[in-house]
Write a structure and sequence with these properties.
Elements (H helix, E strand, L loop, with lengths): L12 H12 L10 E5 L5 H16 L5 E5 L30 E5 L19 E5 L10 E4 L6 H12 L5 H14 L10 H11 L5 H9 L4 H12 L2 E3 L2 H4 L2 E6 L1 H6 L11 H5 L6 E9 L2 E8 L5 H7 L3 E2 L3 E7 L2 H16 L1
Parallel strand pairs: 1-2, 1-3, 3-4, 4-5, 7-8
Antiparallel strand pairs: 6-7, 8-9, 9-11, 10-11
């Protein structure tokens, strides 16, 4: 398998060329080819930042007949509401019906597209992602499992297209890179990640302001909610073949009691994963009664993606997730059982 020099591994030269050709072949202008960009449901910083950064790059090249969207409730988490390019976002109902090109960002499987899966019938679908569990559902798949974030893949494609970074594009890609590396502290933070961050910062963005907005700004109610959820955490030292598992859960009633939106729960995995006695951390978040969005993290001894994939989800070795059913105790027990099955 040959790869483009300087590009993240896992993508062939033919795939890079095909993706670049698909973009270069677009007719520009308001009456030009319709281009639909899509990221996954409940978008995070990498999904939104990668999508909007590339959308801005297309617009800079005169491709103006484009829209960006994601399935589900059309609500952006507060930390991402001021990202450049949000004017290109539309609710899923306003997505193009028959676009010439569909591009997906940070989407590991068709199930993460919700009702927008219908757009995979487009003449050309280009997938940009970094999840090892990606199902390669596109016509062209730029899937780089060793990349720290989807924004790394986006940057490589921009380089192939000869589109220089500007400040707005850089802010989007920096948010994407910073969020998926845990503010540059996860194991995937390579020298190349810091080199990319340096190039993004060189456009004039302020990493301090971005970090405060993304990582260090929370409503008071969110802090109180976090305290309750962390109080109910449970540590099982014998789980994961003695490597330990810590888990907790949050309900819709918790959110309502503190008047918070669901995205607030996404940050709870970080204090849970810091527990010294456990390699595996689990946060179980209620979506509707009896259904739970489950976040899994590992410090390195356990491949949590194997558990997530076995339970219908996906992700990376150190960070993965799936949809669980039943009570939170039943979901936690299911995770423990699969951990033991994969480790013993």
């Amino acid at each position: 398998m040959t790869t483009t020099s300087g590009a993240p591994g896992g993508v062939t030269e033919a795939e890079w060329s095909a993706a670049a050709e698909a973009v270069r072949g677009l007719a520009p202008g308001p009456a030009g080819d319709e281009v639909q960009l899509i990221c996954h449901v409940n978008p995070d910083g990498d999904a939104l930042g990668s999508m909007l950064g590339f959308a801005l790059a297309l617009r800079k090249q005169g491709i103006t007949n484009l829209r960006a969207t994601f399935a589900g409730d059309f609500e952006l988490p507060t930390p991402y509401q001021d990202l450049p390019g949000t004017d290109l976002l539309v609710p899923e109902q306003e997505a193009f019906h028959d676009p010439a090109l569909v591009m997906t960002f940070d989407v590991a499987a068709e199930s993460r597209l919700g009702d927008l899966v219908r757009l995979l019938a487009a003449p050309c679908v280009v997938v940009l992602d970094h999840h090892a569990s990606n199902t390669r559902f596109g016509h062209v798949n730029l899937v780089a499992p060793r990349a720290a974030a989807t924004s790394v893949v986006v940057d490589a494609l921009l380089g192939r297209l000869g589109i220089p970074l500007d400040r707005e594009m850089a802010e989007c890609l920096y948010v994407a890179l910073a969020t998926d590396t845990g503010s540059f502290k996860f194991d995937m933070t390579t020298p190349e990640v810091h080199e990319l961050a340096a190039r993004l910062i060189a456009t004039g963005i302020s990493p301090g302001d971005i970090s405060r907005r993304i990582f260090d700004t929370r409503p008071f109610g969110a802090m109180k909610l976090a305290g309750e959820v962390l109080e109910r955490a449970t540590l099982d030292r014998s789980a994961a073949a003695g490597r330990g598992m810590v888990w907790t859960y949050a309900t819709q009633a918790d959110l309502a009691r503190h008047d918070q939106r669901p995205y607030i729960l996404d940050t709870l995995i970080d204090p849970v994963r810091s527990v010294a006695e456990a390699d595996v951390a689990v946060v179980i978040k209620e979506t509707v009664q009896g259904d739970w969005s489950v976040s899994l993290r590992s410090k390195g001894a356990v491949d949590v993606s194997r558990v997530a994939v076995a339970l219908g989800g996906g992700g990376h070795r150190l960070a993965a997730g799936f949809t669980g059913h039943g009570t939170p105790q039943e979901v936690a027990a299911t995770v423990m059982a699969h951990l033991d099955a994969n480790l013993i």
